[in-house]
């Protein structure tokens, strides 16, 4: 039986290629904490998570001081047991973003080990439900982008075969949002999906008002209209509009998704594998949503989510935002507007270790048995 004999912790900081702004923040730097787990039989699994500019050092400290030491000597295939024990070992800081991001870096590394040991790609090892998933683009729809540029981007990605595009909303007045969205709808016609994302910017009353204005544009969904902790507000909003309400990137435990689904507070779940705590809880959220006949359309992390979406039957979209190009040699494969998961054993991400060495934020931390 293999054991975990060595754990490495490192971080790279990546600058997005495009300016990314939304209704509450700018995305200037992607801190990318990484964990490498070495086993006694020679397998090395790599996992990661991310921040959008703050908190990376806190994730690394939690990994270094509290979580990684508990891995040494354990069977790497005991993924459920390890996740549960690490969650309870840090229960004073859970449920929350920092703990979930740290758990995810470990959990994704363990799944990499599991898939490498089995000689199977993640999408097969985790379920093998569908060989490809429709893809939509977000990279051209940021809040600062003016209407003509939004139109140009939407037409471009449609020509590339993408099935939709996401546009950020939350301009000071609803009329500004409508002008931007209407320009795109007029250009692309009715057969191309438009998603909108408010990044938790609105009050309940303003979200209800804006949803009423958005409805004639036949949007695919209204994402993060309210702060994620406002369950009651989402219930009110969902009951007031025909637009599907999408939530999840700011929810950090499967039980919180259960509350949303039980209360009819959303129609689409967008669990983020890093923010939910890894592949293990992500799969639970996906299957939970399936029991409610609700699709999962995960947030960000396309390089990992493409395999997870292919693993489950109710994944409806992969979100295209290039994230890891500077530190990987693999690229998302898109054919006919559908993203295809890697057939290589493991997570399906080919890391460029020379690039990672150049971009490291600090000397890697190494723990050995």
Automatic annotation (TrEMBL):
Which top-rank group of organisms is this from? Bacteria
Q: Which GO terms describe its biological process?
A: carbohydrate catabolic process
* Cofactor(s), by name: Mg(2+)
Q: What is this protein called?
A: L-alanine-DL-glutamate epimerase
User: Which SUPFAM superfamilies does this entry report, sorted A to Z?
Assistant: Enolase C-terminal domain-like, Enolase N-terminal domain-like
Domain named Mandelate racemase/muconate lactonizing enzyme C-terminal is located at 147-244
SMART domains linked to this entry = MR_MLE (SM00922)
| GO MF assignments | hydro-lyase activity; magnesium ion binding
Under the heading Pfam families, the entry gives: MR_MLE_C (PF13378), MR_MLE_N (PF02746)
Arranged from A to Z, the UniProt key words for this protein are: Magnesium, Metal-binding
């Amino acid at each position: 039986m293999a054991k975990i004999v060595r754990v490495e912790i490192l971080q790279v900081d990546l600058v997005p290629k495009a300016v990314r702004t939304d209704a509450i923040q700018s995305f200037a730097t992607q801190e990318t904490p990484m964990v490498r787990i070495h086993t006694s039989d020679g397998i090395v699994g790599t996992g990661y998570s991310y921040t959008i500019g703050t908190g990376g050092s806190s994730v690394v400290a939690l990994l270094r001081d509290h979580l990684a030491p508990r891995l040494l000597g354990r069977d790497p295939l005991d993924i459920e047991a390890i996740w549960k024990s690490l969650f309870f070992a840090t229960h004073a800081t859970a449920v929350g973003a920092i703990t979930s991001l740290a758990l995810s870096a470990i959990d994704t590394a363990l799944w990499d080990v599991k898939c490498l040991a089995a000689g199977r790609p993640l999408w097969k090892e985790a379920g093998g439900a569908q060989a490809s998933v429709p893809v939509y683009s977000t990279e051209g729809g940021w809040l600062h982008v003016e209407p003509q540029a939004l139109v140009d981007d939407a037409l471009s990605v449609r020509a590339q075969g993408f099935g939709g595009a996401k546009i950020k909303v939350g301009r000071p007045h609803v009329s500004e949002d409508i002008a931007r969205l209407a320009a795109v709808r007029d250009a692309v016609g009715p057969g191309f999906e438009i998603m909108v994302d408010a990044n938790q910017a609105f009050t309940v009353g303003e979200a209800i008002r804006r949803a009423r204005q958005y409805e004639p544009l036949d949007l695919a969904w209204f994402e993060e209209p309210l702060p994620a902790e406002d369950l009651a507000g989402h219930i009110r909003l969902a009951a007031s509009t025909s637009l599907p309400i999408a939530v999840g990137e700011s929810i950090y435990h499967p039980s919180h998704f259960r509350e949303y689904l039980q209360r009819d507070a959303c129609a689409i779940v967008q669990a983020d594998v890093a923010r939910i705590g890894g592949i293990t809880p992500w799969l639970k959220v996906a299957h939970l949503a399936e029991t409610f006949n609700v699709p999962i359309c995960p947030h960000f992390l396309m390089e990992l989510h493409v395999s997870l979406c292919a693993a489950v039957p109710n994944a409806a979209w992969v979100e295209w935002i290039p994230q890891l190009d500077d530190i990987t040699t693999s690229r998302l494969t898109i054919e006919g507007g559908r993203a295809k998961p890697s057939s290589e054993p493991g997570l399906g991400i080919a890391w460029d270790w020379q690039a990672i060495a150049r971009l490291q934020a600090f000397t890697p931390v190494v723990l050995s048995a």
